[in-house]
Amino acid sequence: MSNERVMSPKFRVAFAKVFTPDAENDKYSLAMLFDNNTDISELKELVKNVVADKYGNKVPKKFMYPFKDGNEQDTEAYPFFKNQTIVNASTKFKIGLVDEDVNPIIDQSEFYNGCYARATLSAYCWEFKGKAGVSFNVQNVQKVGDGERLGGAVTAEQEFEAVERQETSGFDI
Asked: What average pLDDT does this structure show over 85-104?
């Protein structure tokens, strides 16, 4: 297994499970949405090297790669997939998470689906139940910018306006 790590280009965060692991598989994870114009050649090179180390020229048939074309996904349910390359990354270990100034992000509202980030990643080959593929481990993540929240979620501050307070004289019924 290669110990090589690469820094991803800037991506949009989706389906983030970075503060607590997913209950189903006990992993921390996130989906990285790269605009189709983003140069992800370093990620592809890492995958190519890891696969070559494991299989040489004998890659199993129907081998699963980590790069998904967002236009081939359910863009009706997830319109933010359009014109994106989707790359999932996960780990069993707590992800290091920092802001633009390299301060730890503790407040969960600061890191959300739709913000922008970059991550350090490693890759590994796997075989399970007759299938084989290559996946990314996420090591650390740095938030690099805010963005529109995905899925139409809005904060309470965006949803409500201040209301005028009314004086009450007790329990008027």
From this structure: 97
